[in-house]
Amino acid sequence: MTLALQIILVLSSILLTVFVLLHKGKGGGLSSLFGGGVQSNLSGSTVVEKNLDRYTVLTALIWIVCIIALNLIQVFTF
Question: Is residue 12 in some structural domain?
Fold first, then answer.
């Protein structure tokens, strides 16, 4: 079970990183430093952004649950 949770944790970490990097910059900060401040009509619709937000939150919840479960398994096995 620990191995399965570790695999899920690694996969969710990679997915979470990808989903966060896919978000459109809101202006200012590091996103505008690397060219994210340029407005484009090809950036996508609001439906895509809402779905990306949902996927990001779901992946973050899976990541958090895996971390808590792995910590609980570690506490109760020692």
Answer: yes
